[in-house]
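REQUEST ID: PR-0412
SUBMITTED BY: lab tech R.K.
PRIORITY: routine
TASK: structure prediction, single protein chain
INPUT:
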Amino acid sequence: MTFRKILSPLVGRDRDMPVLGLSLLVAKTFASHVEALFVRPDPSDVLPYMGEGVSGAVVEQVIEAARKAAEESLAAAMKSLEEAARKLAVPLIETPGARQEATAALKVVQGHFPDAVEEASRLSDLVVFGAMSEDERFSLREALETAMMSGGRPVLLAPKSVPQTVATKTGIAYDGGASASHGVMAALPFLGHARTIELFHVASGKKSIQAVDDLREYLALRGLSATIHVIEPAGGSIGAQIVSEAAKTGCDLLVMGGYGHSRLREFVLGGVTRDVLGQALPLPILMAH
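STATUS: complete
OUTPUT:
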């Protein structure tokens, strides 16, 4: 079990570099192909927001400005890909195929960013995003949530600084729930690569303790040993506590479930997941729903 294709959505801004750096680092670990996806917006999409009575000349100016901005963003995305690939010595190719080394390529499509990312994620093993704050462009958050919850693919959140290693010491935040279990299943390639595995459990009664014991037993069946860490709730954000403990332990990857619910294709992540999305990450976080 491995990651053959890694999807890395790009937006033509500085946030692309950590996404590409982590994507290519994982690709080198598993000899994967990175598809760097740039979604070119349709310039005519701005028209419904202009209202009535706008002159044809103004409409043309707005469309031309949107087209120019998209071209500039595409050029920036390609430059970032070339720079990241050069740093990690990953070849850029035109036609993906089965290889014994990491590869990467830029794919350009036109459409609505979240829909294009969700569609591309269907035939990807892993999707990599940068962690994002509440004031991030909504389409970025929507794309992350649809990839994980509608596309059904694990999402890897990249910290702002690209780590030197990934998944050599892997932490798992586990509560026995379905989402947490899906996270473990999605992380199996990483867990098989890890030298050590740390299980993080927030104390909440005997039933939850049994759940983490069951996980350690399951991992043992796969020849994987793990150490259990019990986190006592200290008030405030549980998500921040989990991430902090994982970082203190020296983990270079944290696995957790992606909790949330859907409402008319608008995904609202809550609780622990939203806590994690909203903070500056000290390490990569793998989420699955």
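NOTES: The chain has two domains: 5-158, 169-288.
REVIEWED BY: pending
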